[in-house]
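Usage example:
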Amino acid sequence: MGRYLRSLGAFWSSSLAMELEYQLNALIELLSVLGNLAGSVVVLALFYGRGHDLGGWSWDEALVVLGVYTLLDGFTSTLLQPNLGAIVNHVRTGSLDFVLLKPIDSQFWLSARSFSPWGLPGVLAGLALIGLAARRAGASPSLPTLLGTGLLLVCSALILYSLWFVLAATSIWFVKVWNATEVLRSTLVAGRFPVSAYPPALRTLFTLVLPVAFLTTVPAEAILGRTTLPWVLASLGMALLSLALSRALWRYALRYYTSASS
Amino acid sequence: MKRSLRLARVLLSVQYAYMLEYRAEIALWALSGLLPLIMLALWSGAGAAADLSLSPAELRRYFLAAFVVRQFTVVWVIHIFEEDALQGRLSPYLLQPLHPFWRYLAAHIAEQATRVPFVLAIVLAVWLLGAGASGWPPPSTWLLGLLVTSLAFLLRFLLQSVITMACFWSERAAALERLLLIPYLFLSGLVAPLEAFPPGLRRLALATPFPSMIDFPARLLSGGEVDLLGGLFTMAAWTALLLPLFLLLWRAGLRRYAAMGA
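Running the assembly step on the lines above writes:
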């Protein structure tokens, strides 16, 4: 365990040093977070400005969902995109060989090797929006609420990670899953809005198949203090299940890894 | 003339064969453009169509058309050019008596050809789910729509190519695409028909090239009322502005190109 923590420290400080060489990217990333946020708020306003609501959520409550989405998007840019986006290249160029030879778990190495500080503006903006909107929606920050929110946010981060990892692991077979991760990113935009705003068939799809509901709507309900025990348990179960699935798929996929042609 | 024709045929058939190799990924890509259909679910769920002077059937046709237009206007030249420039693969291309961008253009067109079956399948599925209740506009309308869609693709390709020239000055120019994607996402008509915008925002959107890339072709394709000549003129005007800019930047950038990594 200590070895893993020490490795993590070395990984992240080295990638931080590397990323800081590209300082202009900080500005670009900041602008992109703000622009995306402004755009999403405008889209929400298109609905609410005409007196319609989305699935029974008030304006402030819908903003909480958007905040959770922004937070997760920042998490994606910080950890998921730089690491899991690179797996494809490891498979294509054969450098996965070196990763597999290292005396450390390959899934851990592939998932935690890089750290990009440019996702942090998104994380901060998400947290700020959540705090602001939750207060306006009249949520009370009691201890159980905070604990439950924390737990559910961790669950949604784990689910998101597993989705990314599963998709990236398929590159063992498809070699060029190229921007397959972009695919995921653009499908998950559905999480910008409360899941109850969708028609019933899509709602089921977003809960069971592509767990968008667990990513943003369920944590948002916890923040607003109206989540119920079954949802917490379902979210926990979903997180554990998807994590186990990603692990199993990785082991299975490695059996098919034949290295790049020399 | 004869040489150009032969060149085009060879480029296209080579790239098509290359893309067919990756058809599994391209199927995934086709799924990534589902945003217009997700937005369609939201708009019809919120019962907002009534305010937009669009009937529910028109709204469905608009978003379905926007989906098709989006599928055939996907551009990724900045990513591939960044990689080619960084790894020095651009150098051999520069030695050939052919502007390297023709190769990228051919790759895009070939990729769209591989996409056709997937897009047809998705359109058919949505159709059967009820979007087709009101019939489809006559062939002359949607043939014109498809033609304008390919013009929209060329315009978007040109716009991204201009941004791509930043690759000569920075190693991380693809990050700029993230910025460009924001106005494209929110102002082009992908998330909402332009009628839904408040007048000020709508004027702002129409002052950018983005509505020409989704809204205008989608409207033609879905058989809505459009100012055909005005729309085409807008596209021509943007092309007349962007094309010289691209050529200028290409020349300036090429002088800086240092053939890294080769």
